[in-house]
Amino acid sequence: MTSIPSHLTHSRRYDLDWLRVIAFACLIFYHVGMGYVTWDFHVKSAHAGPEIEWAMMLMNPWRLGLLFFISGVAFRFASDRLTGGTVARRRLIRLGLPIVFAMLVVVAPQSYFELRQQGLTDADYLAFLSIYLAPGEDFGLIMPTWNHLWYVVYLLVYSLMFAAALPLMKALAEGPAKRFFDVISAGPMRALTLIAVPFIVYRFTLDTQFQTTHNLVWDWANHAHRLTIFGIGYFIAKHDRFWMAVDKVFPWALGLTVGLVLTMGPVWAFWDEVVETVPMWTVEFFRVVRVWYAWLVILTLIGGAQRFLNRPSPILTYFNSAVFAWYMVHQTVLIAAIYYLTQHAMPGWVEFLLVALITVIGCHLFYELGRHLPRFLALFFGIERRKASDSSNEAMTSDQTAERPA
User: What is the pTM of this model?
Assistant: First the structure.
């Protein structure tokens, strides 16, 4: 008889808490790496080159899909016992206030250092700020902007969409969607493959027509990918058979993931050369495999988390509270660090480690500042401090997990 994963008999999803924290940590260090590769980024180190791009390519397909998946799961737990209006109000406060604060205050230095490094302005920061806060496209940049906060903006919009149709979403979750995922969960090959199908379709239809822009009203391929994986997270959140299937296929997902890393990693690392030297049908096959790889990694991570990380920890408690604030500020800190440090002659690996260290310290200080502010002001820093009565009443509820950005 198959054992039921322990999280199905407990309301608290510690495994997803851990996975959220780990995913954001990976994302932060991914963004540090963006300063050291040849791809477009706000500022670049003098040491930027292709050396670490292979590792970045292995993270690219799944890093944001995982976050939107966890976000969908969390939203289901947050909304199941509430009305759509209550959910919308909570999300507007929890996500909307930090978005506004970040666009006006936190993100502004990113545009400043970008323009400084490109030699497009020599103004001091206060003079630049008066330009930044006046809506427009000065210097070829849209200002004010949300930059990396696009994830939170999209998450807020998707949450409001689901909140507006909450009775329908609940009915779908308990009816057609439940039956659909019953089918998905009935066999290991289905769980390993079928959920990747819509994303493969998007790859060869919408992706070819719409580039990713992070422009909320003109980012249709990106919306298709992100809203779909958010919806999948919502519909499977309380689907016991799905989570049991995840546990069963974990060894397969892990083995396939490792196999694809070893066999396809070199292909993705030298993608431009591959495209020029192999037949087009082979290129398209590699693209299908890359989309499938993203789902396999997500399966591996959620399966491993529910097996090995479904337990509380003081470290988890701290970072659960801190992770949104860290995400808000990390890119600003690392951009400033790269801008200044790369002006000094030092080995690339030393500069990289210093940027990473400064980013961690800056994130920690930002969070510590925010959590010592009055409760309302702390919300602007992405920090929600519950009243003592709320904490005692909700200490073991899944809603507590869901009232965070993921």
Answer: 0.93
